Amino acid sequence: MSQLDWAVLAAALAAMVGYGIWKGGRSRDTQGYLLAGREMRWGTVALSIMATQASAITFLSTPGQAYADGMRFVQFYLGLPVAMIVLSATAVPIYYRLKVYTAYEYLEGRFDLKTRALTAFLFLIQRGLAAGLTIFAPALILSVILGWDVRVTVLVIGALVVVYTTSGGARAVSRTQTLQAAIILAGMAAAFVVLVASLPAGVSFLDALRVAGKAGRLRAIDPSFSLTDRYTLWSGLIGGAFLALSYFGTDQSQVQRYLAGRSITASRLGLLFNGMAKVPMQFGILFIGASLFAFYQFEAPPVFFNPVEVAKVRSSPQAPRFAALEARYRAARSTQEARARELAAALRAGSVPAEQDATVAYRAASAASDGVRADAIAVMRAADPGADASDTNYVFLSFVVRHLPSGLVGLVLAMVFAASMSASSAELSALASTTVVDVYRRLLRPGAGERHYVLASRLATVGWGAFAVLFAEYASRLGSLIEAVNILGSLFYGTILGVFLAGFYVQRVSGTAVFAAAIAAEGLVLACFAFTPISFLWYNVVGCLAVLGLALLFESLRPAPPIAHNNPGGGPVPPAA
Amino acid sequence: MPDPAVPRGPAGAVSPDPGPRAPDPGLSDHGPRTTDHASPDEPPPFGGSWNALYAAVAGTLLTLIALFAAFTRAFE
């Protein structure tokens, strides 16, 4: 990195932290600290919702996902707009009417304290661990790119987030997310413009895209139905809707964002804007990844995008074998590039027979390159059995470091920090609010003053920040981080959503029945995870439906209430509430 | 004009009314439960009604799925 890049990165980080402290102010009560005084406009709510969901992994992994697997990952988000409509029409009015601080407060009024405590506990476990992963995943990638120790990048991200989140609470989180969103947008746009401008002479952007299409990278919709295929139209619409309902409706890190709206209208509009903008945004990020694939059909990429793993194998006894495979890979890619140019010319000419021949030749050359790369990865694993064989997280930043001009590299790295900090700060603020409102104030220390609870909230933020950093230090042993984040959420979200839906829509079910159903449903989801090949998106459906079905079953098995005792006058029994 | 769909909830569903509340000391610290800024009947500042906005979001989703399908077909 050049000095200009370091200057841009440092200025962006200072601006984010300074802006957060400045805009956060000094809240003297819990409503100000935990819900930003309920004064956010709908645009701020919308940006805050989107920035909370989009962590750094979204901007690093998603392009790599499209590079390796095509654009079908966009189907993961198709259920989200449906969930936004349902939540806007049902959950938001209930939360506003009850003036709750956390989603779990509602459950005590509807059911009982133990159900509130159970869901709050599940949230704290799941989100506390996820906060560590949110910090660790980009820290690991940045450590590789910057050449820093991963513990340093974890500490830098964690410390910066804790400083302004503790200082300004939810207001600092929401205000800073608008600045961070601007940095993210600028970074992605700059990378895309440079990518298109870097295509070789004689190859238009459309040519490159058409070649990527022949390689299957522009397949966005798959209408087939499968319980084991992760990304299809139906798993996205059904499983994705359940996941989004649970995440946006019951996860405090999101509920806190829209409860900070200045009115119910601001909260609803924030959710609906997310429903309209999220899918195109994800499509755009995936399109950058697919464009990156198209770019690398006309310029040879490295045989492996993770420079640390490559350096390790080069310094091992396997180095000569790896060097030979690198030379073979360069030759294979040269052939593939020639076939890609021929395919582009045939597609431009519009001759169907020539296009078919060129497609067959291009695919054969591509398969040959992929074979050499697979051999190189096998050698890497032979040198170090613990080596990470997936390099999708490094595809985008590898391009940035190699091809972006001085200054823009710093901007994109600032984008990664911004995305990581925006998601982490919202998580820490939500963890603090649930800890203080649902546990500390409700169970341990009721009746203390507002200043006491604000101080407790600040200490909880610091505590969860420290926990996240410590867990992030351990996270390197967890394997695939993207899978870990997604599966971790899906293990708990279905059960929590089922409890909330029972509260919203099934009036004749009691807290005890729901509590027992939630325990049983969570066991069922964990069994699906451990013993079946069912894809993780369906865990949300399984958990939710299990809670609803079992709660109704348990309720029907409960002994009838002593009617004579409740109705001593012997008159007509009133209908249940 | 008040939006009738919001307080009623989705068609066919039981009303989203949370039902009777038990005594809740945890909530008492938040102050009295006023209904300021909390009317579900408040119309949106644009779009006419909440139902129209919901239809716009659903329509956008259907349009996007159709566009993605056309995009997939165009480049395969």
Question: What's a quick, concise take on this entry?
Answer:
Chain A has helices at residues 3-24, 30-35, 42-53, 56-69, 80-98, 103-110, 113-146, 150-197, 205-214, 233-250, 252-259, 264-295, 307-314, 319-349, 352-383, 392-403, 408-444, 450-474, 481-505, 511-531, 537-557, 563-566.
What does this 3D model show about the protein?
The complex is a heterodimer of chains A (577) and B (76). Chain A is mostly helical and 577 residues long. Chain A is built from 22 helices and no strands. Chain A has 2 domains: 431 residues, Sodium/glucose cotransporter, CATH 1.20.1730; 81 residues. The longest helix of chain A is centred in the N-terminal third of the chain and has 48 residues. Chain A is globular, with a radius of gyration of 26 Å. The C terminus of chain A is likely disordered. Chain B has a domain of 33 residues. Chain B has 2 helices and no strands. The relative contact order of chain B is 0.13. The N terminus of chain B is likely disordered. Chains A and B meet through helix 5, helix 6, helix 9, helix 12 and helix 17 of A and helix 1 and helix 2 of B.
